[in-house]
Design a protein that fits this description.
2 copies of one chain form a homodimer. Chain A has 642 residues and is α/β, with parallel strands linked by helices. In chain A, 42% of the residues lie in helices and 19% in strands. In chain A, strand 13 and strand 14 form a beta hairpin. In chain A, helix 10 crosses helix 25. Chain A is globular and about 100 Å long.
């Protein structure tokens, strides 16, 4: 392509029309007079600017006609190739010649901006804009990230359990974290593993780093809940309590107060304060997701345990809450002591009395969430973890506990010991606890229904969804349905306010999937919990897998970590069986998938194909899910020859 | 019925022709002269004997004709009613009249003897004799039992984990158990839970009682292996170490040295030395089982881990060993210290060096078992448990361990800590250990193949079956098949002795069942391990279920304890899917079921219906399995109108 632009000027240059990092439209490039061919690409010495610039000469000034032609050519190329291109050109005696045009490599942020701009300019369709952005790239737009171009002094790599990056000074106890926060200092809480007693310290920390644990360990779950970066399972680290130091591989010693950076997206822990980039969800991002929603044909809800989470969910346009885990509500502030009193209650009456003090707190949680979600559906999972998660393990904490519950230390130790389990994952938790200690679920149901009545009185009709965890037999559902129905009736007759609710089941044991037909007869919805279902299908504890799973994946024994990429061959097969049988038991049963996998493109495509109603993922995954779901719908449309 | 027998004599009596406890043929009953109707039944005062007796008058002497007629009538009734009956009769002026005949209630032992005698007398067929005995009654013939007629002073009830009854003096440590045995005193070892360090004490004890644990806990497994009675999970007991006492419900205190009786059949622990009845497998028992074998159409093998077990298996006519768990071989004697050295090895070379010292011990185990089984198939499951089961937990034992492995205590503690798992059941064990620490399986394969060569040189052709535990993916099998094939080739070429072996998979994760088609492509057999499969299908740890499972069963939430009665609806469904897919992957794949359930009538009927090749249960369950299998075959024959 050669365009006459006048006489005299010769040289070569390169031009692009966007900032590759931000995606903003601006002219970037250079021009090298007296050069030939691609010289300007390899040398910046003696180059001039393209646009008018106070710092030196520019092509725009020197040769305005050639410059104008260049811009026209750029526009034409963008339109014809339907892409932002970097263009190499020469001027030969004023004649513009385009040598080459290559796609501008770009950041995730710029990719979104470019796709949206091309669609807004009518160059590509909105569907194509939606298809052009890799959903996996979105999370980095939602969290502060370690600058990918900065050098990384990596201390160790663990499991990135809560995305984002933060720098701060090392502290080794929750108390020190609180003290640092009080001084206004950013700190990184480093623990072997965290327990409920560390909650306040975690609130105070800029990030959390643990030596043990996996994606569902206490630190990981709470870290994601708090929205702070978290790396867990950094097994190569050692804490040297005596020296108040952390020992990293290679014998590097970090003392309390030393600066480190936790990258919860990649799992890296870096020496010092690494440069970071801020979160950047902009207008283009929002627009792209709005377009995605017009193509999407499967619902996207968020997992949200707190009013903060609910607000995030709403901000990310989740269509509701698909999983509100109620147990985290019991870890906070003074509530954990109430939980402990309940655990030490002598009988059902005393237990009920303690729960009566938890009731208004739970009700307020639910009322706040209903208010934020403004009529969108909220699915509340009743209490799930084993009770011993609420009890401390070290001696000092046990002594404190003995004081809180006014019992001799020996008795407290005996109770803690009695509640300890060989395999807590497979023990007395979920619906099993709901059945054997009925006061807990009764209190929760009452709190949910009273909050529903409050919402109704504020003019907001809420139909709460109540979900039972760890179900393995039909009778569990029948029995609890009877009890929860009774609580609903009591609240209705006491308040005179009519309301409806829906009872459903979290399908997370293989048996619940196999028996879904009969379970669905008492369940308006079935939500497949892929975390536990993966653990049970493989016989693999997520918290313990760290010691061999990486080797398994490296050797190709498992193609991928099944906790990150859903295993469609095994777990997916069980879900398919469960969905099919669930529908056989109740034709209009609502099917969904919740858990870590629900925000991944593979799981979303699978759910869409199986005709699920929605997926529910953590709030920060909602944009990924919305985009992935739209892409799955578009792909299937084009596969059908649409 | 009235028979003239002469003049004069009048009275009434009752007669039967067997001893209801032993089943022996002898005349039992009494006769009351001058009585009418049923008087002789309600009163013994003034009654005379039926047969000649030095202690007093008898009907046989007083009225020989009437007595002879009575015997004839008895014979006729037995033949006509095809059963041992208790007969009420009167004499009216010498006229014999039969008033009533009821089935003699009888012990399990007598039931076997009666059924066999009726068949041998041609009164019933052998098939009917086989159908008449309740398989569930057989175990009490194989173990010493607490006399059911003696009064029971029950201290507490736990889980009957290893059948039989034994009395002895309480000891609280393994050392004390050894000391008592050295003095020739029977003792009952009472522990919170047992660990590998207790093995020698368990060998020395007459029975074991633990406060924690379930049917698969260390105490239970070892107890069954040793054939000593064992009750576990007696959670209501407390050990008061200071007072060297055990506190039972109701505040009863038992000191060391107090006598108790452990009933491992029922789970009862009784005060004092309760009267017991000896084991009574007699000729009738053997004959009945021989007949059963002629009807049976599914194989019965035994689970046997040691030469002793193998001998039992052979004595009970098991057709082979279906499950030889190799890990128990590592707990015994000095071997556990070798295991510990291996765990503390610095690298693969050092590990291999320790394993080389275990190799001859393993080889000798296998050679002994092959010799006992004399060509019958032996299926050896490679190492399964997590390594931390071989490490102690209390401080004193850790200090000893530090000495054994010549490492500082702090290092030993760190390693123990590092190996600890949140959910050991779902952790680094089975094939996962086999893949990540390859030296263990390589040593085991070598020991198996060298023992095979030894057997071949003794003229016994053994085709060992090597089974991989906890498989969840095809690649695990492929990878280990390659490694084990290599070991076999090396042994063949080193010894010059050709031999074959068969590699198979223990299907105990839901995923292995779901992926059975592809797994079977590298597996000559699939053995469904219902213990772990039940745990994973329900998400239920057998060791932890004790705290709520009894309540669940009592409330009818689970119809039965799924660890005792196989859950056909859930677990069975997965097995069906696995069997069907396994056959699809390899038409001639051998299918079997092993684990606690395999000896129950319900599981056997299920396996037979699904076309399984065999079941494998603990040696003492083999008779139950043989009888149940025969009954299932006979029932299905009669259902088909045979």
């Amino acid at each position: 392509m050669a365009l006459g632009v006048g006489r005299g000027e010769s040289g070569s240059g390169v031009i692009q029309f966007i900032d590759a990092t931000t995606g903003e439209r601006r002219i970037i490039g250079r021009y090298l007079g007296q050069s030939q061919g691609r010289e300007a690409l390899s040398s910046t010495r003696g180059a001039s600017y393209l646009t008018r610039d106070p710092r030196g000469p520019s092509l725009e000034e020197a040769c305005p006609e050639a410059f104008a032609r260049l811009l026209e050519a750029g526009d034409r190329i963008r339109t014809r190739l339907r892409e932002e291109m970097q263009i190499e050109f020469t001027l030969e005696n004023g004649q513009l010649r385009i040598l080459d045009a290559i796609r501008v490599p770009r950041s995730a942020r710029a990719a979104v901006r470019v796709a949206v701009a091309l669609a807004e300019d009518g160059i590509i369709g909105r569907d194509e804009a939606v298809m052009r952005v890799d959903p996996a790239a979105l999370p980095q737009l939602l969290h502060r990230q370690v600058d990918p171009d900065a050098p990384r002094d990596r201390l160790v790599t663990g499991i990135g359990a809560s995305p984002g990056a933060a720098s701060g000074r090392i502290v080794l106890t929750a108390e020190d974290a609180e003290a640092a926060a009080a001084r206004g200092e950013a700190c990184i809480l480093v623990r072997r593993e965290t327990t409920p007693e560390d909650i306040r310290g975690m609130h105070a920390a800029a990030a959390v780093l643990t030596i043990r644990g996996g994606m569902t360990s206490h630190a990981a779950v709470i870290g994601r809940g708090l929205g702070i970066p978290c790396v867990v399972g950094a097994a190569e680290l050692e804490i040297d309590r005596r020296r108040r130091a952390v020992i990293a591989p290679g014998g590097r010693i970090l003392h309390e107060g030393d600066l480190v950076t936790v990258d919860g997206t990649t799992g890296d822990v870096l020496m010092g304060a690494a440069p970071t980039l801020p979160a950047t969800p902009d207008d283009s991002f929002r627009r792209l997701l709005e377009w995605a929603d017009t193509f999407r044909d499967i619902g996207v809800r968020a997992n949200a345990d707190t009013p903060q989470d609910a607000r995030l969910a709403r901000d990310f346009a989740a269509e509701g809450i698909g999983l509100c885990r109620t147990e985290h509500m019991f870890f906070e502030g003074g509530r954990i002591n109430l939980m402990r009193e309940m655990i030490f209650a002598e009988d059902a009456g005393e237990r009920r009395a303690v729960l009566d003090r938890l009731l208004p707190l739970q009700r307020a949680d639910f009322a706040a969430i209903f208010r934020i979600m403004a009529g969108r559906p909220v699915c509340i999972r009743l209490f799930d973890p084993p009770l011993h998660e609420f009890l401390p393990s070290d001696r000092a904490a046990l002594r404190d506990l003995a004081e809180v519950v006014s019992r001799p230390l020996s008795e407290v130790e005996a109770r803690v010991d009695q509640l300890r389990e060989y395999n807590p994952m497979l023990g007395l938790r979920g619906v099993r606890l709901g059945i054997t200690v009925p006061e807990i679920y009764e209190m929760q149901a009452q709190a949910i229904f009273e909050a529903t009545v409050e919402a109704a009185q504020d003019g907001e009709a809420v139909v709460p969804e109540v979900m039972l965890p760890l179900v393995s037999a039909r009778r569990e559902v029948e029995m609890l349905k009877t009890r929860i129905d009774a609580v609903a009736s009591a609240v209705r007759s006491r308040t005179g306010v009519p309301f409806a609710y829906r009872l459903g089941v979290m399908v997370e044991t293989p048996r619940a999937a196999l028996r879904a037909a009969e379970i669905a007869q008492n369940a308006a919805f079935l939500s497949f919990g892929t975390n536990d279902l993966t653990q049970l299908t493989y016989g693999l504890s997520r918290d313990d897998a760290g010691r061999f799973l990486p080797a398994y994946v490296a050797q190709g024994i498992f193609p991928e970590d099944p906790f990150h990429a859903i295993d469609l061959e095994g777990v997916g097969e069980l879900i398919r069986i469960g969905a099919e049988r669930g529908r056989r038991g109740r034709a209009d049963v609502v099917l969904s998938l919740c858990g870590e996998h629900a925000g991944t493109p593979r799981a979303i495509e699978f759910c869409r194909r199986e005709g699920f109603d929605y997926v529910s993922c953590s709030p920060y995954r909602v944009p990924v899910a919305r985009l992935s779901a739209a892409q799955a719908a578009l792909r299937s449309r084009s596969a059908r020859g649409g």
